[in-house]
Structures
1.
Amino acid sequence: MKKFFRICIAALTLFAAGEFVFAKDNGEVKAETLERPPVLRMTEDGYRILWNAEGKSCGKLVLKDRHGNRKEIVPVRGKVNYKDSGYMADFNELVPGEKYSVKIPGYGKLTFFAPPEKGKSFTFAAISDHQTIEEITEQGFMAVAGEKPDCIVSAGDMLEDGKIKNWRKNFFEKISLLQGIPFACAEGNNDTGGGLFSSFFGLENRWYAAKYAGVTFIFLDSNMPLRSDSEQLEWLEKTLCEDSSDWKVVVYHHSSFNSTEPDWSFTKNREEITSLFEKYGVNLVINGHIHLYDRTKLINGVQYVTLPTMSGNFAKRVEVSENTSYYAKTIMGFRGYGLFTVDGNVIKAVVKDLDGNIMDEFEVQK
């Protein structure tokens, strides 16, 4: 019997050692200690910057404009897994269109522009499903950054799954390519897990609004209930009702309308959510998820666009269906992104593949 126990203990010891080596070989780290380069997220009042440089403490940040004006900002510690992790700081009351710089401990100087004055033309890039093939994610981010958009929105699936190693490999090791360009994102089904999405982006909820030069971007979590009695839908109606922006753009992962066979539209709760879009004058809805490009006709005044994957695998076992009442254009088999120029009473949209070829162009009129 003693020999049996000794064998069991030895086996358990070897198993534990193997688990340790496996974790070490995979480069696994704890969520709260993961090094994270600065992410400049859009908010309702300006920007929030979030980062974590392990072992680097931070006192005051000094925000400078190009005229030499200085403003001291005291960052606060962020929380990941209910533990202190990195820092975040809010940059509010920015001068429209002004160029700013700030030194981030462990990462050096970050330079960015404040949103332009309300009503002034600007371009935002839109991406989705930039999660799978690392070298193509890098190619995609470089292509988008090369367009020099004023800000970037993502419809989610930044990761292959919500594990820490994928946050590191698929997102944080690539996001530096967009350094200095304000960013905001919706949570995709592959981004879920452990509440890390909210923690890493400094969010109270997984749904939120951001404002940029006369546009209100509303980011929803389509992984969560969108029923009429849900907290998220109540928040959405209140936010839309109180908003007076020139343009309302809603971003969430699962697309509500697709012209595909079989129909991959996210029909669950579609009526509840789209009726609010129509009631409160939403202009544009941006989705992802199905790894192909799909644009509808106007549906009761609302333009719906499903972005192609930026670095994922292409949709399989699906065909284009032109028989839906809302069909406008569907293109399969390319990776790409969208550029949306807000100019007065029109949004001019161009959809490109990663080589810069134009795949579609359209306009959204007010």
2.
Amino acid sequence: MRDSMWQLKNNYKYMKKYKFKLLSILLVMVGCDGFLDEKPSKSLVVPQTLAELQGLLDNTNFLMNDSPALIFNGTDDFWTTDQGFQSFNSIPNQNSYVWQEEIFDTPQSSDWVISYRQVFYANLVLEEAMEMDPITDAEQKERDELIGRALFMRAKAFFDLAGQFAPVYQKENASDFLGVVIRTNPKITEKQERTSLQETYDQILGDLNEAVGLLPETVVIPTRPTQTAGQALLARVYLSMSDYEMANQWAKASLESGAELLDFNEVMPSGNFSFAPFNKETLYYSVMNGQLFHYSNLTFVDQELFDSYDSLDLRKKLFYRKPNESAMGYVFRGSFSGDYPLFSGLSTGELYLILAETETRLGRTAEGLGYLNELLEKRYKVGEFQPWRGLDESEALNLVFEERRKELAFRGLRWNDLRRLNLEPALAKTLKRTVNEVEYSMPPNSPRYVFPIPQDELQLNGLEPNIR
């Protein structure tokens, strides 16, 4: 039987038991009233070596490779029955599914806490690593790579937070809107306000640009980022900002660094899951925290999305299966985690779609279609795909958006795609759902595309709330 992802990661040879008091930190972090109010003390941890600092970032018990989950619920990737809705494992899951004004039923949010936990450990590693004085060239290289990894993880955490708790980035007014709280050291002893959206993205980009110059070319396992992953994350960030030139530049750099496509003709499904974990298309591994209800036999892929796959498209069978003959639809089976958790990391396929979109938007439609054709050739049965040619810019863009939705379904990316595409009237979409005979809708550019700041942070730290 295939090991679960958790077993694989827990058996990872670089995971060790360290002598410093990590459990004390975790208890303080989970038990505090507000995450930005009462913080773990750095004095509780006494890392002695670079290997011990590496262990902080490798620690899966602290969810260092997790991503926000609730933004997935509000997308049009899936739907559930009334009974399925009742079986959701938390009130926030239900509330985010139907776009309620109030999401959280407790003063805290796990999405908020997990991301800031990642920020704290990244900051701790950065501060400690900077104080160490490497003796050999090998130690210097190890320290530089560790610093690059911490910068990457901090940037990704801030980007995850901005995509959920701040409005979509628009260059012309980014300085007028609030972003998130930016913490750049572990000594959190004073209250700090939210930065502007522009300052938030400046921090993300600054961290990533520095990280790319320090990260290694290869790693043993993709729970650690490489230079290729850093470049891919820069491409994702710039696309979310509608900076097509820079997104294009970094996506090309990532491909040139060695990102490879997986030929879906070579994929052999095993049991309920299609893909092996850590396949060659995985540039950086992360999963959505705690999202398992989508594997219920009462929760199904959106029918319009399922029907959009051609019968010769291998993704239709590799991504979805019918749980039983009487089921009302198909369930998702195509996570790159190789298991139940939904993969939310970086992959080569995403890079090809970024290049297809940005080349087209930059007036190079033929080149954009070239990238799209190269991707789709690996997704269709051998010899069955007919390359796209001769489309105008509008037709090509619409095709790219269709393929982006099909390729990146159930990845946690759809929410932010909806946010940025809703800014273009021709691409804006109203979402609708019916639960227990009550119809809910989510209009384009609704303030509910920005999640509420958790109540603890409003009361204990005086953060300014989001308008819902």
